[in-house]
Design a protein that fits this description.
- The chain is of the alpha+beta class.
- Helix content is about 35%, strand content about 30%.
- The protein contains five helices and eleven strands.
- It is globular, with a radius of gyration of 21 Å.
């Protein structure tokens, strides 16, 4: 990944994407300008792993162009896609707040660019502009709450499908003794 200046992108597009990002929701023009001044930009080639689960964190990314995929490792080395990140979406927020290792892997699906907020710069916003920092933390919380809600629905479906699969049922083509039938389900 290489550092690029916002001028390397169309500046109007850069600002339009960021202004519509949920990360900057409810910020006034001057607040946005102050917070955006802490961002760096990076060009990210197709297929680049931005970060891997388990790696130390310290940067928040806002997708400017392109598409990223978030995934998690499963037993046996397989990967499960979790969600797609499009322009305006942000990721890496937990790591920039807590400096905890990443719990997902993010890879660029195509040539992309991202605005990057480093841990040190995020802390400068919190200390120098606490009112802006509170708004940014509130926005992070909103997005994470939505992601947790999606995860809870997914887990609820898995539990419900598991309970259904465990129930004995009679097969129409074999009216004899009860047999167990497991259903198939589709994961997005």
């Amino acid at each position: 990944m290489s550092e690029i200046k916002p001028e390397g992108l169309d500046l109007a597009r850069f600002n339009a994407v960021l202004l519509h990002s949920p990360f900057f929701k409810d910020l006034t023009g001057p607040e946005y300008a102050a917070a955006a001044s802490f961002l760096d930009c990076r060009a990210i080639p197709r297929g680049t792993v931005v970060y891997r689960e388990g790696e130390p964190g310290g940067e928040l990314y806002i997708c400017l162009t392109g598409v990223f995929n978030a995934s998690v490792g499963l037993s046996g080395g397989a990967r499960r896609g979790l969600f797609t990140i499009k322009p305006g979406d942000f990721f890496g927020e937990t790591a920039v707040i807590s400096r905890e290792p990443h719990d997902i892997t993010v890879t660029s699906e195509e040539a992309s660019s991202a605005a990057v907020l480093r841990f040190q710069e995020f802390n400068r916003i919190l200390s120098d502009y606490p009112f802006i920092g509170v708004k940014l933390l509130r926005n992070i919380n909103r997005v994470q709450s939505g992601r947790f809600e999606e995860s809870a629905k997914y887990m609820d479906d898995l539990i419900r499908w598991g309970d259904t699969a465990r129930r004995p049922c009679r097969r129409k083509d074999r009216p004899g003794p009860k047999s167990r039938v497991a259903g198939f389900f589709y994961l997005r």
